TrEMBL record:
SMART domains: PKS_KR. The lineage of its organism: Bacteria, Bacillati, Actinomycetota, Actinomycetes, Mycobacteriales. InterPro entries: KR_dom, NAD(P)-bd_dom_sf, Sc_DH/Rdtase_CS, SDR_fam. Belongs to the short-chain dehydrogenases/reductases (SDR) family. Gene3D superfamilies: NAD(P)-binding Rossmann-like Domain (3.40.50.720). Keywords: Oxidoreductase. GO terms for molecular function: oxidoreductase activity, acting on the CH-OH group of donors, NAD or NADP as acceptor. This is Short-chain dehydrogenase. Residues 11-194 form the Ketoreductase domain. PROSITE patterns: ADH_SHORT.
């Protein structure tokens, strides 16, 4: 068991949505803690660019993965096994949003949001979970949201539906794999001021609402989410499964 600052030493961790605002911070933290990171996102080139900024880039690998494609999951899990011989953690981080309300949302956007955030998370668990089990056990971190639990600002209905499913699938899978030592937990960020999010919303009414609903009075930072991922991915959390961990500045406590 490795705990402490080097706690991910030589663990193989597969991450989806690696080049996004939070994903890139997770990549940096996992690499700093000694993991071999399998960076995946829609475009391999963005993953490779990010990988090239890491110390010892040769320890990591970059692959294209659309999480809504079962075939691509099969390919990525097979490539991970042939490159590293094992997988110790999966971080199901990729998702897309939609701010539409229940009466505004369109069927096509609903299907896209559910296809990536909900179905993509299930496919990741389905295909990577057995390899984690064969590797001696490990951890699955499903990136959820406060909107997987509470109504938020009363919009983003498709996103809330996807994240609600992520929350309950997490508990279901945790029970299935409990004796196999594959732990499954959901991580629920509040509003995180990543560059893409700020670019879209800074100064808007929505930005003011995000701040007003957060008791700590500020948005979170990507590295504050990455720190919780590192805890959940490694051996500091070996008795934590089926849990929902909030990093939301107090949003759900209010
Ligand atoms: N930023 C926030 O405030 C916030 C709050 C709560 C939860 N989250 C969750 O954190 C996670 C990361 O969010 P973020 O803010 O970094 O978002 P982001 O939009 O910056 O990044 C998302 C990444 O997912 C990738 N992606 C989109 N569709 C994909 C697909 N079909 N297959 C594979 N990858 C795909 C994108 O290319 C992008 O790199 C998401 O699950 C999100 O729901 C974010």
């Amino acid at each position: 068991m490795t705990v402490g600052p080097d706690r991910l030493r030589d663990k193989v961790v597969l991450l989806t949505g690696a080049t996004g605002g939070i994903g890139a911070e997770i990549v940096r933290r996992l690499a700093e803690e000694g993991a071999h990171v399998v960076l995946t996102d829609l475009e391999k080139s963005g993953c490779q660019d990010l990988l090239d900024t890491l110390t010892q880039p040769e320890r990591h690998t970059a692959l294209a993965l659309d999480v809504s494609s079962e075939e691509q999951w099969e390919d990525v899990v097979a490539a991970t096994e042939s490159t590293f011989g094992a997988l110790h953690a999966l971080v199901n981080n990729a998702a897309i949003g939609s701010v539409a309300t229940v009466d505004e949302e369109t069927r096509s956007q609903w299907d896209r949001v559910i296809g990536v955030g909900q179905t993509g998370t299930w496919l990741g668990m389905k295909h990577a979970g057995p390899l984690i089990e064969r590797s001696g056990g490990g951890s699955i971190v499903n990136m959820c949201s406060i909107l997987g639990t509470v109504g938020g600002l009363g919009n983003s209905v498709a996103y809330a539906a996807a994240k609600g499913a992520v929350r309950t699938m997490t508990k279901n899978a945790a029970l299935h794999w409990a004796k196999a030592r594959v732990r499954v937990n959901s991580l629920h960020p509040g509003f995180i001021g990543t560059p893409p999010l700020l670019e879209r919303w800074e100064g808007s009414e929505r930005h003011r609402e995000m701040l007003a609903g957060t008791p700590m009075g500020r948005l979170g930072r990507g590295e504050e989410i990455a720190a919780v991922v590192a805890f959940l991915a490694g051996d500091d959390s070996t008795f934590v499964t089926g849990s929902e961990i909030y990093a939301d500045g107090g949003w759900t406590a209010a």
